[in-house]
Amino acid sequence: MIIDVTVPQLGESVAEGTITKWLVREGEVVAKGQPIFEVATDKADQEIPAPAGGRLVALLVAEGDVVPVLKVVVCRIEEGATASAPAPAPAAEPAPAPAQAAPLATPSGRQAALQNAVDLASVQGDERGRISRGDVLRAAAPAAPAAPAAPAAPVAPGPRARQIAQLVNQGGGFVPPIPGVGYASFKVPPYRKAEGDTVIPFTRRRRITADHMTYSKVTSPHVVTVAEIDLHKTSRLREAHKAAYKKEGASLTMLAFAIAATARALRENPGLNARVLDDAYVVYKDVNLGVAVDSPDGLVVPVVRRADELGVRGIVRAVDELAKRARNGKITADDLSGATFSITNPGMKGNLFGGAIISQPNVGILRMGEIQKRVVVVDGPDGDDHMVVHPVMLMALSYDHRIVDGVAANSFLWRVTELLEKGEFEV
Question: Please, which residues have CB within 8 angstroms of residue 392's CB and are 6 or more apart in sequence?
Fold first, then answer.
């Protein structure tokens, strides 16, 4: 029986994926569950397993093609077939004529050509004639001029720039700046390559991140409020238990306590656990915290689900597991979907504090700052003020002023501060 293979549903909000790499060749025999191709989405990159064992009789899409989930057949498997027909060695093919180049360009290559006004017929592809985004960007980069050149003519905005500009101009009236071009009489000077410069094309993940951050700043009126937190009691609690956690193979970090405090504060202040719709907003029932962690392809934000029900120990386990999968490139789209609020920890070299950009469609994100020993004033047993040295951290809350007012935002951050300063966690 012939089985049609499609890109499966890879998360609740994922509509399409890019076939980035075939892991098998046409004619090979595959086992059920064996990875057969890699697919990249706006959430994550992952391997897709064979739904059945048999012989791969046809590869129907090329690497770089973008296909909708569940709708387009990407390959076919003859279920149960065990004899592998030897795949013929690929014959050397001449490079395609210039007129044939555009059908051989990847979708990202075609998009880059449109954005940079590059004629695909003039772009040198790989040995098979495939033209990637990188090939187009290299062709678009101007050579360093031997002598001063005349002022460049204004550059017409690409489709992506126009889309971004239209986001804030749907109601008419205000004319926004155009990214990469300028605003009114101001124009961004064209880039002229100089010796020693390195042009680095955007990776797919970087492009998605850039688009997300631009959209968030355009869509949400960001307000930032900052709290100073004395971590003396929580730090002592951590020191008393971190060795026991280490014996269990877990790491009891200050991030775990921050997540626990944030989850509890969100349960008590649900207005921050929300998202904006067209003419309404939703307050979520579950507290699902997106936690920024590093991965080989850059920062990703997997989700700790129902964080308010886990406690510190459950949060440590959840974060450790998600971070491990992210480091190994095994994070899935489902791991990255469904956050109702986000928290980010910039690490040991995070500097004093910073206002993070909201991860859409959330209405708030909490950024931890660097923990420093500082002199603080505390109440002594005699009722007098005393100066002591305690670990202190600044936490910055960025919130969406469309639905979150200052009173609600400050009440939430005040509660996070109170929980961390009291240090009354079950570990």
Answer: 228, 229, 230, 231, 371, 372, 373, 374, 376
Give tens-digit pLDDT for 91-143: 444 444 443 434 766 656 766 776 677 877 788 876 667 777 777 777 877 65
Residue 258 neighbours by CB under 8 Å, 6+ apart:
343, 345, 366, 368, 395, 416, 420
Q: Which two tokens stand for residue 99?
A: 């007129």
Report the alpha-carbon distance of residue 174 to residue 148 in Å, rounded.
37
Mode of pairing for the β-strands spanning 45-49 and 35-40: antiparallel
- Taking residues 203-213, report their average pLDDT: 82
The model's pTM is 0.68
Query: Is there a contact between 376 and 353 (Cβ–Cβ < 8 Å)?
Result: no
Instruction: Give me the pLDDT at residue 185, please.
Output: 84
**Vertex 97 angle, CA 94 and 99, to 5°:** 155
Residues near 330 by Cβ (< 8 Å), separated by ≥ 6? Answer: 46
Widest pairwise Cα distance in the chain: 90
The DSSP annotation for 17-84 comes to EEEEEESS-TT-EE-TT-EEEEEE-SS-EEEEE-SS-EEEEEE-S-TT-EEETTTSEEEEEEET--PP
pLDDT, averaged across the chain: 83
Whole-angstrom distance, CA of residue 11 vs CA of residue 13:
6
Residue among 45, 41, 3, 48 nearest 22 (CA):
48
pLDDT classification of 51: cutoffs 50, 70, 90: very high
Nearest Cα residue to 165 out of 189, 185, 181, 188: 181
Strand order in the sheet with 45-49: 45-49, 35-40, 16-22, 66-68
CB 229 within 8 A of CB 395: yes
pLDDT tens digits, residue range 9-44? 877 667 788 888 899 998 899 999 999 998 887 667
The distance in angstroms from the start CA to the end CA of the chain is 55
What SS3 class is residue 314?
A: helix
Q: Whose structure tokens read 């994922």?
A: 14
Residue 45 tokens, joined: 């990159």
Give the residue numbers marked as catalytic: 401, 405
State both tokens at 349.
Answer: 């070299």
Residue 38's region, left for phi above 0, alpha for psi from -120 to 50, else beta, is beta
